[in-house]
Each structure stands twice: as C-alpha cells, then as structure tokens.
C-alpha cells in the first residue's frame, strides 16, 4: 500500500511541475491525445521539431507539457532526445555572446523553432537557426531550454 501511495505522490508532483524538466522534440508531425491511446480524443497536431516537456512515460506513450502548460499524450516514437526551443517572446534577439551588449546575430519571431546547442551563462542558451546562424538568446525569450 505504501508503494502505491509513493507512486501516486511522485506522479502528482510530476504533473504539478515538481519534477525537473525533460525537454524533447517532436520527430515528425504527431497527433496529441487526451489519453495514452489512439482510441482517445484527438486534441491537436504537434509540428515537427516542436519542443515538449516529457512529464510521464507509460507503455509507449509520453505525457507532455507545451509552453502554455497544456498536457497531452504523444506516442513515444514521435519524440526525439534532440533539443529545440521555441520563441515565446514577440521577437527573440540572438547575440554573438551571452551578453546584452554583444552584437546581434539575428532576431527570431514568435513561434520560430531553434536548435538548442548548449547552455550559456546564467540566463542564456546557445541556439542555432536551421540556416546555420548561431548565437546566444535570453532563456526568458524562448521555451524548451
């Protein structure tokens, strides 16, 4: 009985955001469901490359959270360990160095997906655009890092 209660407590913490984030990206467009089954209600389609926070894994399915905090189930085969971030600010400024005074490399509009390259200085993350440009962006301007 105690093991069941402990599992429930850990599951509730994970759903409430008490667990650390495990960001992954979607390999190809995938249908999100309300239950871990293709017989569940289809909620929406998740775009290729989109970052999600993997909350719980259950028999070939992963419960994921999106930037808005919405939860849905995706088939585990639809996810990759490759990390991406999505711009959540109206525009994200990508700089040469993790410094507000560094030259601007490029700007990315809201909704643009960037490859996560590596963590930067506190509050920054190194990203790469699909066209090859790379630099550092404030973590507050993106989600998934």
Description of the molecule:
- The structure is a single chain.
- The chain contains one helix and 14 strands; from the N terminus they run αββββββββββββββ.
- The protein has two domains: 2-82, SH3 Domains (SH3 type barrels, Roll), CATH 2.30.30; 85-143, SH3 Domains (SH3 type barrels).
- The strands form four sheets. A five-stranded antiparallel beta sheet has the order 6-5-4-1-7. The protein has a five-stranded antiparallel beta sheet with strand order 13-12-11-8-14, with no helix packed on it. Strands 2-3 form a two-stranded antiparallel sheet.
- Strand 5 (61-65) and strand 6 form a beta hairpin.
- With 145 residues, the chain is mostly beta strands.
- Residues 1-18 have low confidence and may be disordered.
- Helices cover 10% and strands 46% of the residues.
CATH class membership of the largest domain = Mainly Beta
- Poorly predicted regions are 1-18
Strand order of the largest sheet: 6-5-4-1-7
CATH topology of the largest domain: SH3 type barrels
Binned, the helix content reads 10-25%
Please compute the radius of gyration using only Cα atoms.
17 Å
| CATH superfamily grouping of the largest domain | SH3 Domains
Strand content: over 45%
Mean pLDDT: 88
**Count of beta strands:** 14
**Number of discrete helical segments:** 1
Q: Structural class of the helix and strand makeup?
A: mainly beta
Could you say what the CATH architecture of the largest domain is?
Roll
**Overall tally of domains:** 2
H-E order:
HEEEEEEEEEEEEEE
